[in-house]
Amino acid sequence: MIKAGIVGATGYAGVELVRLLQSHPEVTVAGISSVSYEGKSISEVYPNLYKICDDTLESEDALIDKCDIIFASLPHGLSEKLAKKCVEKGVKLIDLGADFRLDSAEEYTKWYGKTYEEKDLHEKSVYLIPELMRAEYKGQPVIGNPGCYPTSIALGLAPLMKSGLVKDDGIVIDSKSGVTGAGRGLADNTHYPNCNEAFSPYKVAAHRHTPEIEQTLSKLADKKVNVTFVPHLLPVNRGIISTIYASLSSVVGAEELHKLYSDFYAREKFVRVLPLGKAANLRDVKFSNYCDISVHADEHTGRAIIVSAIDNMVKGAAGQAIQNMNIMFSLKEDCGLDFIPPAF
Amino acid sequence: MIKAGIVGATGYAGVELVRLLQSHPEVTVAGISSVSYEGKSISEVYPNLYKICDDTLESEDALIDKCDIIFASLPHGLSEKLAKKCVEKGVKLIDLGADFRLDSAEEYTKWYGKTYEEKDLHEKSVYLIPELMRAEYKGQPVIGNPGCYPTSIALGLAPLMKSGLVKDDGIVIDSKSGVTGAGRGLADNTHYPNCNEAFSPYKVAAHRHTPEIEQTLSKLADKKVNVTFVPHLLPVNRGIISTIYASLSSVVGAEELHKLYSDFYAREKFVRVLPLGKAANLRDVKFSNYCDISVHADEHTGRAIIVSAIDNMVKGAAGQAIQNMNIMFSLKEDCGLDFIPPAF
Amino acid sequence: MIKAGIVGATGYAGVELVRLLQSHPEVTVAGISSVSYEGKSISEVYPNLYKICDDTLESEDALIDKCDIIFASLPHGLSEKLAKKCVEKGVKLIDLGADFRLDSAEEYTKWYGKTYEEKDLHEKSVYLIPELMRAEYKGQPVIGNPGCYPTSIALGLAPLMKSGLVKDDGIVIDSKSGVTGAGRGLADNTHYPNCNEAFSPYKVAAHRHTPEIEQTLSKLADKKVNVTFVPHLLPVNRGIISTIYASLSSVVGAEELHKLYSDFYAREKFVRVLPLGKAANLRDVKFSNYCDISVHADEHTGRAIIVSAIDNMVKGAAGQAIQNMNIMFSLKEDCGLDFIPPAF
Amino acid sequence: MIKAGIVGATGYAGVELVRLLQSHPEVTVAGISSVSYEGKSISEVYPNLYKICDDTLESEDALIDKCDIIFASLPHGLSEKLAKKCVEKGVKLIDLGADFRLDSAEEYTKWYGKTYEEKDLHEKSVYLIPELMRAEYKGQPVIGNPGCYPTSIALGLAPLMKSGLVKDDGIVIDSKSGVTGAGRGLADNTHYPNCNEAFSPYKVAAHRHTPEIEQTLSKLADKKVNVTFVPHLLPVNRGIISTIYASLSSVVGAEELHKLYSDFYAREKFVRVLPLGKAANLRDVKFSNYCDISVHADEHTGRAIIVSAIDNMVKGAAGQAIQNMNIMFSLKEDCGLDFIPPAF
């Protein structure tokens, strides 16, 4: 059994990892840590886990000593140090934060206001959306786990980017995220009466996931791609929908688009290209590792419209991290990830 | 006092008119009608009105005989006949349905599958978003009240369309509507467990409001404008947000855009251009006749981003209809419409 | 015009007062104050008020000097000092907090952990649920405005308590409150993902409103009444429903109960006793000053079941405070309170 | 592998069974049926199942011929005939409807308006809440699966009923159910704008689960028990909370109550008695087979207050049915039921 540790276990992605890993057949949760709640049982913080996982929250260092792999779910700027300690001790690391996502140190500094201190560590890390990049995994000890928005968007746009059909500067991405995306920290905009019966964009064309999105799309298209990206806060607990508009350089009908997508994802279990005429709904992927994609054409303006839906906490965070762990340990990629989305 | 009648009073727009007109200082609700509930009290159907308005639902014809103005909230295809009767008897009509919105009989037939039977009636009618078109009211007996999506979009785009800054085919509109927009009729997609904790687009690039949107934008731009328009069903009761992306033909900064909008709407009470840096939220316009607009620039892709929020049942339906009635009767435009949006 | 000031204007009850008083025909909001936001415009804190009320938040003292009446919405323990200042300057005070609700200084200390410092002030104050106690207003300069739960419960039980039909210790009250009842302060249990799709009681049989409830019921019954009271947090913004179970000393059928209630409230505009067979729903009183009451009998166990619904922020706070102000100033009791609950 | 069939697979309990059984290690779903959708794929009706279970909906008879056990989720009055066919062919049946719950044919007729046609079948059936009645399973071919409210209430009251501490007629049950409890059928009260931001009791003291509740409590107490039972519709998708008030014949403190409950359920995996001071929350049992119980004392009125929370679709329907199937087939009772409630 693989011994896994979770650093930042009382954050939302952390506790989701605790939950999902309970049913992974090849993994034991060997330890969990939290700075704020060290010494407490996690089920005091999350009573859903009472009598299921009453493990005590330990220090980060205690974990490293007894684990084969660490999942880190920390605010940006804290993962490098942790990574260094892990790599030195031969422990693998999957970072669910932002510190190992961007290739460019400049972009990281521009968007996150910090600097890469350990440049060689970044050489040893890889950013991995499994369906698009699994071939790039070559034993690196550190994986940068993708952000939630970038996952939904990269999966939604990959076939089109590869096709060469998209006009330069022709992409608009309108994303909507459930409130868990904002995390466990209390804030005015996630106070119930402020976000219930409310809806608004935030960080309009200024969200930190923008460089990550453009990095992936540029690689797929093999040229620099800029996008307009606007996220919105959606009054639901879970899920992200990205409605993606792509201006095409030639007329492409809905059937042709649908075939492009169906062929591209024909062998991918976790990406479901919906039948033509259906629209992706975050309801249908909640609590699962699936990404549902629906494909639409607006021929009178020459745009393809792609709708991509994931559970932000599963495929957008903890589930994809486990998928990446499965790759790291040469397990079947869907091992421990057979969660079926409920109908309601 | 103006004697007003409401045809289709048990629909959502109808009952909102009943509510709003109770506090209009110049209007008496002289009669209400409903085909499905004739003979019943409206407070049996809507218990919120118990002991406030227990009026009995009558026939359409009974109403015409005792009213100065009829508000019609009917499925499309039924308003022409009603309009004919009203006009013959010298009664004014404001149609909240789709039958007097489109200038082009061909477009109407294409999108609604019916034909204009009474062409001269359409000559006598006018489509009116007060802030943009009040000068076009010249005593016509019939007003076509705008749709909810088109209202939020036309107000959101008018300053830009008039400016000539928008590239051809450069507009993407991503709209999200509360569930009351789908009306009172029962349907699978508005069954609570289906739309709570759910989110999805519908009628992608195929919604009937598209020709109405393009008609208004084309007039404003003084050339044919095509748009990509995708509506989504939002799990809240009320409100519409349209996030509008417009590719610009030259570089325009956020301050300049903001000045364009602030100047354009400087004298409009019901359109609030938010301070730069804020984002419009449907929470802040609910239960009111306000349209909140926030202006953003994405300079790295050359797009303006406009966020426009209204209450779909007030400014998007009943409130705007009353505003139009005020124009018809030469009252102050905001008469009876001083509803302050609650904080929660 | 009466010059009103609101102390604690950025709390939820405070900002609701700001909103409701805008449309009161006899009142001008002469000043608003807030310790946390002094010097800021209230519309920076509550953007729903932008361009409607952009007043600057001042100090408490500045308000007293220019107002005829102060509404105070403060944490308990802070109102006595304010009251003293007001009374000395001849300014009336309506306290929406807990400091002038309990007759018994011992009970106040027991439940709130503070003491009455100004005993004579309490002599000059009166606790007022208008429908039940308006006769007790005899020019007192200070009114203790009732709590939200106690209002819904006292109105729901008054006819039964007066009837003498209720068995000793025979009352169970199961109340459910919308999240605004917890106020504007951030807390774990009002963080959106914690209370959306959740439901739980809190302070089971230990809520501070218990002595206030028992005080009123005891006066109505003319003997000491104890109740079991359990509040629950309901995932909606507004509204309180109290489902009240009363064991009866003799068999009383539903019709008889209904007549008792209908007669008792026959002249009360803001209390609607629903037709037999209907159940009160908080949906139907939202945004209004109404209290809806439905009456049911469970003859096989000998209990009456009363369901009482109010908007916690209107009839349960700001609306009732205005109703009390109307009494203080000899205005019609419903003056400025004609808010019609919307259907949705 | 046990071959299971689901009759009524497109109802809410049916589709939940389809989902839960996918991950049961000893069961294959051999067939699913639906009268309304025969011939269609279930994933056309429930797109969450797309590419996971695209099975075609067959006729009831086709299922019986190939299954070892049938789960029936049908409107009342239809299960007897199905049971007869199953029993004749040696196929086991678990009925999730109401037809095998009540011992008394008179009560069934009184509450459901139908009659038991096959009296001997009822002799061969058993009603089973596993934690309380598993000893009563002696190979009967038909199990009547308990209702959702009765499950939450029986588990919540069993220790007290057995203790003999509860006064006659001393029980009040205030239950709140998520909207899935009302099923898949469209209705006015489950139309989104009607039940969002709304809350109301329904069938006050007249719900059909009342005789089932009283039957179980009477057996536990070994005397006839009457209760006052009021259900409410809660604006969440899933979950039931029952707040139960029991007047006690002697003074019992919270610690003593807590010990009574902890001891009673010490060996039950699926019943979690929460630490004293906590309150059960339906959030913490959602999507799982757990029943959380919190115990409280109101000594000043002599009542115990028990809060019992389940997921109405799992422990209240499909999960408990699987637990009962496990008993029927001598599997471990928790087999295939290790669903961990998510934190959000």
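qc> Chain D touches chain B at residues 12, 179-180, 184, 186-188, 190-193, 195-197, 235-237 (CB under 8 Å).
qc> done
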